[in-house]
Amino acid sequence: MLKFDRVTKVYKVGAFGGGEFTAVRDASFEVRPGEVVSLIGESGSGKSTLGKMALRIASVSKGKITCDGIDVSTLRGHRALKDYYRKVQGVFQDPFSSYNPIFKADRVFSMIREEYYPEVSQSEWQDRVAEALKVVRLDPNQVLGKYPHQLSGGQLQRMLLARALLLDIDYLVADEVISMLDASTRIDVLNLLADLKARGMGILFVTHDLALGNYISDQTVILYKGEIVERGVTEKVFSDPRHPYTKKLFASVPQFHKKWEEVEAELRAKEAADTSTHPYHLEEGQEVPSELVQVSEGHYVQPFHRRAAV
Amino acid sequence: MTLEVSDLRVYYRTLRGDVRALDGPTFTVADGEIMGLAGESGSGKSTLSKSLIRLDGRMRYIGGSVTLDGDEMPIWDDRAMDEFRYKRVSIIPQYAMSAMNPTRKIGKMIAELLESRGVRFRDVRDELHRRLELVELERDVLDRYPLELSGGMKQRTVMVISTLLNPSLLIADEVTSALDVSTQRAVAETLVEFRDREFVKSMIVVTHDISLVYQIADTIMVMYGGRLAEKASAKTIIEMPKHPYTKMLLDSLPEVGVKYEDKRLSGIPGSPPGLLNPPQGCRFRDRCPLADKQCLEQPPFVEVESDHHVACWKAE
Amino acid sequence: MTAAQPLPDPTTAPEEPAVATPKAPRLEALYFALRNPKLVVGLSIVLLFLLVGLVVPPFLEHTPGERYAPPLLPPSAEHWFGTTQFGQDLFTQFVYGIRSTFLVGFLGGGIAAVIGMTIGFVAGYKGGWIDEVLNMLTNVVLVLPTLAVLFIIAAYVDSYGVVTQSFFIGMTSWPWAARAVRSQALSLSSRDFVDLARLSGVRPWKIIVRDIAPNMSSYLFMTFILLFGGAVLAAAGLDFVGLGPNDGMSLGLIMHQAVKWGALQLGVWWWFVPPGLGITAIVGSMYVMNVGLDEVFNPKLREM
């Protein structure tokens, strides 16, 4: 289990590190094996920072991230980190920036071999690569031996997924992996994530796109300005959003068959019908606590002031 | 008709030959129409929108005509286009927000822009203030530097600037794609309001996000491989598309509420054709499940139902 | 997703027209290099001097300090560059001087390049407090009055040859290189492919050497050339004011002696003009080469 326990990230800003900027505050959630958790937020919500912390590219300021019980920030030394990356890997947003432009794209595979499997023979390695490429539905002849600029964004992202497969990882951080791909082919890459999940992989799917999050994930975490405002089983969060920010997000996302006004009217009607007071409603003047409150089984929301405008 | 485009062809010059980025679209935009222009990268949608304003160095006008309110636009003549640009046809460019000179106050920038078009700033100042108010911007943004504004504020400022002279046609090029969903909606709705208040007569909203144009557009035109695939009312495109590309594209887009366990969507196999030496006939042929011999010939873009144009032999 | 032609999409990639001669960014650079007059001329001059300095000395009968000829002879067939007041052959001195000039350039420039690049790369890649400490160090050395330090060192060190001189020059001239390399390395380090290398368990130094440095090889090369030229000039300056090596010969030293023994007043132009021209030609060609290289590596400056 990849567990985030009250994770906070503070960046020092300004001259001499005098100022502070809190990118993530007290975020707690988990990614279980064979489960996709989508981390949904707008730019600046801290969603990518959470992914980077899980990958140890950014450090944790407070709280801890544990992977199968081991505190990630205690991993000291090259050896320990290397072992960690055997279990947890990442794929990033921009496929073209993920490859060193002056080398061939398949270098991402040879790097893995050099570092992790130096004892594997060339022919066996080729078989393994071919096998991994098959899983991500790529034809080795079309992608091996080519430079990144000769391949499409979709092919490059698939190769990165294949790279993760070579390591036989348990968890994958997928940070906006399809947002730069063409509309007609992006869904196939998304489906691949679902296939990896079926193989038992736990996936942290970072996205700004509600529809994508809904399509693929079991759990949803909604981030707003560095704080988790709502999280839980995807169906529950999507069918019954409680936090004003979540509602606003749902009302703003353009849909196909419903116009904005209709969606907004529905949400309004629901709100008007529900006059009861819930434990997550705060009195005027009350501070927003950092603990989320349970709405129903497996659905949590950050307490808010009833008439709070986001 | 505000805009009539006929067989417009604009190619990109490269060392290896011409890239046929825009290959003969013919269509019209009616008075008061907001037309969504959708397509993937390489579909020609950006080339089309740029052609209506200014051909950049590598773009070459090959043929066809563009008529705005009955007057032919000399899009091949950069100088002569000055008569049209900004005054009668205006654009909100994709990176408008970063295009603003950061060292110039916004008010000063607007004044300079107007002077360069032969309009006195004083004559339009009151209108400018009114419109800023309308998009919920304080008058004092004029005394501020672009750096001091948020993304959404900048985008609204640019919208006001580009429509200040009430152009007939406004082209909005991916204006919302860099914005967050919540700001996106406000900007998109402002576009509609500008049309309703007749600041602009008609509008082309270029985007890769069909669900967004569905929210605000009257009609949607889908492009593929430098050509037109389909044009109809927004509702028709979403609910009863006829071109296989439109159908498959829509089927590949997840919508809020769709989960892969219930309904596994699939993309369109293959990738868009290279336009350096595009394949003969229908450009979607290679990826189309319905394609046969007939498709080796280029399908015409014809009206199959009232106000529903499709370029496909198989469309009924 | 099948055969994806790398379609040069005119809408998203306006910078890169479809020139894509796929395999050969390096060959392409060579192609432009051979057609760049600045680079070709600069390189030819530098190589010519280098060749003279390397090849000629073994064929000379006398050492540069040997006093065997009549004094103050103007250039002639016997003594190509004339002789000094002490009857030393100026051509011999000149040739040996070129030798030490290149030695200073390679050694001084090389030491500065190694220190500057190491510090720059580590600071840019690691960031954080390491960056701050290294930055401080760089700034301290940067504001050191280099010449004054060299004066003091030169005055106190006994056996002081060209190698020692190069060493001190190298030790003091790296800061700007460190700064330049740091800023480049910093921007490259934030690229995703560097993160991906980290996630592949690659050690930091290996990432620097194999992922970051190759992406700025042209930049590093140019940095070295500038350091080389800088070292040559610094050495000439020291030599000229009399703080040159006390065992050895250099172009700066020739000029120093010329001035010291009144060649200017006596109108013995052949004593000081050739070494002055030599230094100017070598350093000047280096800078011209640098401009040429910039044009080759930076496509925006290429004249099509």
What portion of residues of chain B belong to β-strands?
15-25%
Strand order of the largest sheet of chain B: 7-8-9-4-10-11-13-12
Structural class of chain C: mainly alpha
Share of helical residues of chain C:
55-70%
The CATH topology of chain C comes to MetI-like fold
CATH class of chain C: Mainly Alpha
Mean pLDDT of chain C: 83
The domain count of chain C comes to 1
Ends of chain B: how far apart? Answer: 27 Å
Count of discrete alpha- or pi-helical segments spanning 4 or more residues of chain B = 9
Low-pLDDT sequence parts of chain C: 1-23
Keywords (chain A): ATP-binding, Nucleotide-binding, Transport
GO molecular function (chain A): ATP binding; ATP hydrolysis activity
Protein name (chain A): ABC-type oligopeptide transport system ATPase component
Pfam family, one (chain A): ABC_tran
Walk me through what this model shows.
The complex is a heterotrimer of chains A (310), B (316) and C (304). Chain A has a single domain, classed as P-loop containing nucleotide triphosphate hydrolases (Rossmann fold, 3-Layer(aba) Sandwich). Chain A has helices at 47-54, 77-87, 107-116, 122-135, 140-143, 153-166, 183-198, 210-216, 234-239, 244-252, 260-273, and strands spanning 2-13, 19-31, 36-40, 62-67, 70-71, 88-91, 171-175, 202-207, 219-224, 227-233, 281-282, 293-296, 299-301, 304-305. Chain A is globular, with a radius of gyration of 21 Å. In chain A, helix 4 packs across helix 6. Chain A is built from eleven helices and 14 strands. Chain B has helices spanning 45-51, 96-99, 106-116, 121-134, 151-162, 181-196, 210-216, 234-239, 244-252; strands at 3-14, 17-23, 27-29, 34-38, 59-68, 71-72, 89-92, 169-173, 202-207, 219-224, 227-233, 302-305, 308-310. Chain B has a domain at 3-88 and 169-182 and 209-310: Rossmann fold (3-Layer(aba) Sandwich). In chain B, the strands form two sheets. Chain B has an eight-stranded mixed β-sheet, with helices on both faces. In chain B, strands 1, 2, 3, 5 and 6 form a five-stranded antiparallel β-sheet that branches. Chain B has 316 residues and is an alpha/beta fold. Chain B has nine helices and 13 strands. With 304 residues, chain C is an all-alpha fold. Chain C has one domain: MetI-like (MetI-like fold), CATH 1.10.3720.10. Helix content of chain C is 67%, strand content 0%. Chain C has helices at residues 25-34, 37-55, 90-126, 128-143, 146-156, 162-172, 175-189, 192-199, 204-212, 217-240, 251-260, 263-266, 269-297. The longest helix of chain C has 37 residues, at 90-126. The two termini of chain C are 37 Å apart. Residues 1-23 of chain C have low confidence and may be disordered. At the A-B interface, helix 7, helix 8, helix 9 and helix 10 of A face helix 6, helix 7 and helix 9 of B.
